[in-house]
Amino acid sequence: MSDHIRAAIIGSTGYGGVELFRLLASHPYVEVTAVISSSAAGTLFSEGYPHLTGIYAGVLEDVNPAAIKEKADVVFLATPPGVAAKLAPELLETGLKVIDLSGDYRLKSPALYEQWYKKQPADEAYLKQAVFGLAEVYGERVKGASFISNPGCYVTATTLGLYPAVKEGFIDPDTIIIDAKSGVSGAGRGVSLGNHYSEVNENLKAYKLNQHQHIPEIEMILSDAAERPVVTTFSTHLIPMTRGIMSTMYATVQGGRNAADFIELYRSFYEGRPFVRVRDEGILPATKEVWGSNYCDIGFAVDPRTGRATIVSVIDNLVKGAAGQAVQNLNLMMGWDETLGLRFVPVYP
Ligand SMILES: NC(=O)C1=CN([C@@H]2O[C@H](COP(=O)(O)OP(=O)(O)OC[C@H]3O[C@@H](n4cnc5c(N)ncnc54)[C@H](OP(=O)(O)O)[C@@H]3O)[C@@H](O)[C@H]2O)C=CC1
Ligand SMILES: CC(=O)N[C@@H](CCC(=O)OP(=O)(O)O)C(=O)O
């Protein structure tokens, strides 16, 4: 077990990449030795991100696997879909450890990836090699791995909120409906018509209904929990805030369980996992309560009149939904305490 490593970030000019930099900059065992850009190499990192003035004096570097290997032991890919599919094999072949934040290695079926992402899938041998890092569920597999595929942001909030109830038969998996909402940083730093200020401000929009690329990833995890195929309705909405995801999930309760039973199950399932916090009965979490942190907070309401449970799960999309969970996975990979570099209180208000 090593106690110091050097990290490179590809896609550092994006929101996921710059959030990785923020977290790694205060990690006790990690030094960021390269920030990489495919379009702005040679310019100062702080030029695009003035909040880093006086914090990181280095320039952005080219995407060159051999050169990255000279400077780093682990590389994070915070790049758009399709980039890691091509780049990760080359990075792995140099001997680098790789943590990919994109969706390129999450689905193990190339055909399924092509269907939902409309892009050329990664090589099947590398798809098999990538360990899916939903840390609180598959953390044991992450330990000692050298290639991690970090889960999607919506997927993290949703499946941490559903997995114990499906696994233990508290809800009927065939009745699940997921209503999810994200802040605009979930769409990355690039500007498009759908996410500029006057389109988003004072507005609430549903998008990608029945077509969201996270649907097969959610179904992969729920099917694993149920030990049979599960399909689900998953609806996404864009809300006028910067960070945060709330997944509100509805399902028919089995076995007459009440909210107290759910709370007891979840507290037991996530015991010893410091980043999942289960609210007391009658208290539902809000996105602001996890803002800037690696927490996933979960609350329950069970309606005896309808026989349905409502599960509310919140995360910060850029932390637990992306960079924070990637750092958590690095900690698990390296055999370190999973909270290293992530022990901070949410920003409030
Ligand atoms: N935003 C979020 O909340 C979450 C994002 N993700 C995933 O993480 C990844 C990054 O997302 P996000 O940071 O939001 O996106 P951004 O659009 O903000 O950033 C992506 C960065 O990737 C770089 N890039 C683009 N093309 C290439 C290429 N061919 N080779 C190398 N680098 C390239 C660009 O930088 P440059 O031009 O400088 O190279 C760009 O800044 C995506 O796959 C996203 O789906 C996952 C969970 C949550
Ligand atoms: C608000 C918003 O647009 N969010 C993005 C989340 C994208 C993402 O995180 O993509 P992958 O996890 O698939 O890499 C979306 O809904 O597509």
TrEMBL record:
Limits of the Semialdehyde dehydrogenase NAD-binding domain: 6-145
An example molecular function term from Gene Ontology annotations: N-acetyl-gamma-glutamyl-phosphate reductase activity
SUPFAM superfamilies per UniProt: Glyceraldehyde-3-phosphate dehydrogenase-like, C-terminal domain, NAD(P)-binding Rossmann-fold domains
Catalytic activity field: N-acetyl-L-glutamate 5-semialdehyde + phosphate + NADP(+) = N-acetyl-L-glutamyl 5-phosphate + NADPH + H(+)
Pathway annotation: Amino-acid biosynthesis; L-arginine biosynthesis; N(2)-acetyl-L-ornithine from L-glutamate: step 3/4
Enzyme Commission number, as recorded: 1.2.1.38
Subcellular location: Cytoplasm
Keywords recorded for this protein, A-Z: Amino-acid biosynthesis, Arginine biosynthesis, Cytoplasm, NADP, Oxidoreductase
Positions annotated as active site in the UniProt record: 153
Family assignment from sequence similarity: Belongs to the NAGSA dehydrogenase family. Type 1 subfamily.
NCBIfam families (alphabetical): argC
HAMAP family: ArgC_type1 (MF_00150)
Functional note: Catalyzes the NADPH-dependent reduction of N-acetyl-5-glutamyl phosphate to yield N-acetyl-L-glutamate 5-semialdehyde.
Name of this chain's protein: N-acetyl-gamma-glutamyl-phosphate reductase
